[in-house]
């Protein structure tokens, strides 16, 4: 039976099943969420409840956060009743959110002042990966601290990669989202084009999935996209946020990102047309709007 008690803050579409997998693996998990309903579900599943992030830290050995964006992570860690107030010497904070690398570096310094450690460990794999425990996890921070907590990561993911010092995990996740967005937009364009040209969409998906165009989006989303199923595995609004992180970093480092800039604008349109809570594959709807035709099968 694992001896450490885990605090898990952020029990949403990704964090909820990740915390459940830790419970299934035998860990005691103290959960906190800004809205109460996910905590109720967590307790019903076998977890414990914390009323504040500080309480979650005070009652545990390791704190994991899985939150929407940089401001929320900053508030949860450094704000009133935040994680910092509950840390003790030698503890580790594992942030599995996707946030700015520079914000990560600042938070790591704040946590180090408490004689504690931080790992930035953003994730990829969508809701399916969170449920199945098959996420790809990109870790920044001290490699010895990663080794100490590798058992936790292996419960939640199949691939755990040390990417460098604090901030490197977030930089790697930005690279991941650049490629994911390119896939989503490329597959969307291809499907809308195929529909306008009169091709059989099922046949197109089957044919191109087995060749050089094969990718995660074709394997996991295309069959749903052509049925108009955009139930979220990863919100389009989160993809938009991640692309803002990537383009801001590209500006800071002087890296041209023409394709990412276009994807950023398309996901911005998801927000402005009230589709931000759709799956990120729902960007196809913006291409359909521009084409004046939906790429659907019966």
Describe this structure in words.
The strands form two sheets. The chain has a six-stranded parallel sheet with strand order 3-2-1-4-5-6, sandwiched between helices. It has two domains: 161 residues, Rossmann fold (3-Layer(aba) Sandwich); 120 residues, N-(1-d-carboxylethyl)-l-norvaline Dehydrogenase, domain 2. The model has no long low-confidence stretch (mean pLDDT 96). The protein has 15 helices and nine strands. The termini are far apart. It is α/β, with parallel strands linked by helices. The relative contact order is 0.10.
Topology:
Layout: E1 5-9, H1 15-24, E2 28-32, H2 36-45, E3 48-49, H3 53-58, E4 62-65, H4 70-78, E5 92-95, H5 101-112, E6 117-120, E7 123-124, H6 126-132, E8 135-140, H7 143-148, H8 150-156, E9 157-164, H9 168-196, H10 201-209, H11 216-220, H12 222-225, H13 236-253, H14 258-272, H15 284-291
Parallel strand pairs: 1-2, 1-4, 2-3, 4-5, 5-6, 8-9
Antiparallel strand pairs: 7-8
Helix pairs in contact: 1-6, 4-5, 9-13, 9-14, 9-15, 13-14
Structural key phrases:
Rossmann fold, 9 strands, six-stranded parallel beta sheet, 298 residues, 2 domains, three-stranded mixed beta sheet, globular, alpha/beta, N-(1-d-carboxylethyl)-l-norvaline Dehydrogenase, domain 2
